[in-house]
Design goal:
Length: 352
């Protein structure tokens, strides 16, 4: 069966050594993706790069500032760039390829990370039948963050044969199953995917913005950081919000989202037609997300160019849906202790 692979496929690929990691944790396997984990091998580097004509290791030789051992917790300084070899490597066959995205918790902390592999012309892409190591480039943009070996910052989604994104016509036919709706208007906007709009009408907090001077955030510590140490809550004034240059905001969608168990979703992070800002770092929605009644999408928004005024109900992102090669026997939700199944305007899992 062609399409995006599901939970039971990843189990088989690990057993067959298509995915190699001697110490893989069962919790890394998601309904239609695999969490990738940091190894102890880490380097601070001079600048970002791609290795389209050679291996990552060969390219790295001239870029290393210092080597770091992540067997002990190490603080990644804000705006410095690091590269970490991941514990997982690949030995793909049978026309399997893939792509990666930051995990939701990573995006909500303004940690910019992207996957690099040997002889690749693009970030985040795993070439067809790729065999080799995987590296993750990491730049924390709002906070100093302490990482160590085993932390999971990004996810891999593998596809066999062909990737099938649903067309707008197909989305219109199944829109009742998607149950995505802007409840006040009772409409679903479909144009190159499903349009998602921002909710700035809340009578209380409409957004959070990252503070400038904060303590170190310990990535391994869940539900242990004080919100006020890292974030300022923004109250509603006139159903609008000025996104200031180089500041990082957490907002939520007006729509509730459901990903049916035969589909996976992906948020498109940057669309100049909508506005000159990045609206989402973390791309993947697994099958079962939001079931049965829908869950708001949390949006991570930043502009690096000019200040941008957002208004309530404005389109801020798009979700594309893709077919799975079969129904997953595991879906997103409380049975696998998913963190964001019934979220509102929710910060990452690291906060109390």
């Amino acid at each position: 069966m062609k399409g995006a692979l599901v939970y039971q496929d990843y189990l088989k690929l690990i057993k067959k050594n298509y995915i190699i990691n001697e110490t893989i944790d069962q919790n890394q396997i998601q309904p239609a993706s695999l969490d990738l984990s940091l190894s102890e091998e880490c380097y601070e580097i001079k600048h970002s790069f791609l290795s389209h004509k050679t291996t990552v290791r060969r390219k790295l030789k001239d870029l290393i500032i210092k080597k770091i051992n992540l067997n002990k917790e190490f603080i990644f300084k804000k705006d410095k760039t690091y590269i970490v070899k991941l514990n997982e490597s690949l030995n793909l066959k049978n026309n399997i390829f893939g792509h990666c995205n930051p995990k939701s918790s990573t995006g909500r902390l303004d940690i910019f990370c992207r996957t690099i592999v040997d002889f690749a012309e693009e970030y985040e892409k795993i070439p067809n039948n790729y065999q080799g190591e995987i590296f993750l480039e990491i730049t924390s943009r709002s906070f100093d963050v302490a990482f160590k070996k085993g932390n999971c910052l990004n996810q891999l989604r593998l596809i066999m044969g062909n990737q099938y994104y649903l067309s707008d016509e197909q989305l219109k036919k199944i829109k009742t199953k998607l149950k995505i709706t802007n409840f006040k208007k009772n409409t679903l906007k479909i144009n190159n995917g499903v349009k998602i709009s921002v909710d700035l009408s809340n009578s209380k907090t409409i957004a959070y913005v990252a503070k400038n001077n904060t303590p170190v955030l310990k990535f391994s510590k869940i539900k242990s950081h004080k919100i006020n140490d890292f974030w300022k809550a923004i109250k509603n004034i006139d159903n609008s919000l000025l996104i200031e240059k180089n500041k990082f905001y957490i907002l939520k969608s007006k729509e509730k989202v459901i990903i049916p168990d035969n589909l996976a979703g992906e948020m498109i992070p940057y669309d100049t037609g909508i506005g000159d800002f990045r609206a989402h770092y973390a791309g993947f929605f697994d099958p079962g997300f939001g079931m049965p009644n829908g869950t708001y999408a949390v949006l991570e928004v930043k502009t690096n160019e000019i200040p941008f005024l957002l208004e309530d109900g404005q389109t801020i992102a798009r979700i594309k849906y893709e077919k799975l090669n079969k129904n997953s026997n595991i879906v997103y939700g409380k049975d696998i202790k998913s963190n964001y199944q019934n979220q509102g305007l929710k910060l990452s899992k690291h906060f109390k």
